[in-house]
Structures are given as structure tokens and as C-alpha cells.
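INTERNAL AUDIT FORM
Audit reference: QA-55
Scope: verify that the stored structure record matches its stored sequence.
Auditor: D.O.
Record contents follow.
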Amino acid sequence: MNRRTELRAFLRSRRARLSPAEVGLPSFGGVRRVPGLRREELAQLAGVGVDYYVRLEQGRNHKVSAAVLDAVARALRLDELERVHLHNLARPDRPDRRQPRQPVADRVSEGSQWLLDNMPDTAAFVLGRRTQVLAWNRPAAKIFLDFGPVPERNLALLVYRQPAIRQLVLDWPVMARHVVAWLRLEVGRHPEGEETNAFIAELAAADPDFRRLWNEQNVVDPMHGSYRLQHPLLGALTSTFRTLLLPEDPDQMLIVYAIEPDVSGPEPGVAADVSWSPPPDHGPVLPGCCPDHDIAAFIVKGSGLT
């Protein structure tokens, strides 16, 4: 998996979702070998030569201009997120892109840690490259998971490999798509990142859900959203989040959650007129997952480290 592979898969997937009739092209009947638009049809719509477009889709045109990419984006009816993703994949060395600093150790700055520590009523954590969980605060440990004892502090691995997370997050499919979106955002910033590409390839090979979502090539906004939780201590909750890129390191994201009672949940855990208050010092507990019902202990036990 590399920049060329991702660019080719993305453009093919966007061509496949459009029919000639949708874009005003005549259909000559017969069986089409590929779904959606052919390369020559897209080239016609974008106003470029067929050979030029073929080289672009194959990742062999390193001198493609922003104007041509915008024309292709219009022809494919890409939204703004998809348009930016196309530019990131097709023009990784363009002058206006910020050059990343040399990578430092996977840790947060003192300022970011101070910010986490001074949000006593708001769950938050910081993700680094490949969705590594670099830091978190006490509310995040109480609501989601105490990452401290977990051997692999990686959000993607936890979401896709740990059944306990699927029990906690009722909207697991939504969270799963956001994880894919965060990884796709990183690939857009660093298309040739070998470690990230290897991580994605390994996870895709091991997990069919991740492989299916990644191959769909959908570009969604991972900067905000919400999930319903079924917390074993507090009942039904809604967690609404915002994602902020940290200015001192654009490869790190601060994700902040607002937690509220969900009166429409499957179990009436917290009444609408009762103010939410943090649970005890331990994190979520799931009946039957392990002797002390703690998610982190369950994950550690499953890893064979206990």
C-alpha cells in the first residue's frame, strides 16, 4: 500500500459511483466492463487527454497541476473533503504543503498534557501517528478506558480487535468509520509513510470490517461527531466529540468529548433531570468480561501479559 495504490483506488471508486447518464453523457447500451464512468469518459468531462488522465490515475504524473485536479474533482462531483484528499494524494510535493518536522518521540508536549490535566469534567485524549493513544485524562479513563495498563495503546487496534469496545459503544460502526477517516487523513498528509502504510495493510489483512471500510475509499469528516454509549455504571450516554489538530505537532490530534445522558437509550440508566456526574475512579465495567469486570484488565488478560 502506497501513494500510487491509494490514488488509483480512490479515483476508480469515485468513477464507479457515477453513470454516464448522471453526467450527461450518452449511453450506447451493451454490457459495460466496469461500473460507472470509463477513463476516457472522465477525461472528456475534465477536459484532459485520455493518456494524461491514465497517467494521473496510475500515479505516474508527478507534474499535475492544481487546475487539472480541480477539473477532475468537478467531473467526479467530489465534495470539499474528497477534493483535498485528491490533491494530497496526487501532489504530495507541492510547494504549499507544510514540510513536517523530524519526528520526535511519541509523546505530547507539556502544554498539551497541562490542558488534559486541567479538564476535570471533560473526557479527552491525544492521538498520534497510526492512532496511537499518547495521553489521556481521568474522565476519559472513567468513561471509555484506562489506557495505562493496556499493552497496545492504539485506538484502531482497540476498536477493531476488542469485543469489549463494541459492547461499550452502541454506535460502533460510526466509530469504526471515524478511525478509518483519521488514518486516511494521515495518509493524505504523508502518502509515502512506510510505517503507516504497513500498519493499514496489516490491519486490513487481519480484520474484514476494516478492510471493507478502507476499500470503500469514502472520505468523511473525522473532526466531529457523536456516539451512543451503554455505560455499565451510568447507563445510556451520548458522547459528542470535536477533534483539534495540535499546533506544535500537526500529526497529533486532541479529541474532546462532551458526555450527556441519553434518555432514548436501550436502558433507562440516567434520568433526563439528573445531572451527570463522573463514575468512580475505575473505568467502565462490563459484566462477564473478566474477574473484576474492568475493560483494561480484560484486554491485558487477553494479551497474555497477566
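Auditor finding: record pair retrieved intact. The first strand starts at residue 123 and ends at 127.
Action required: none
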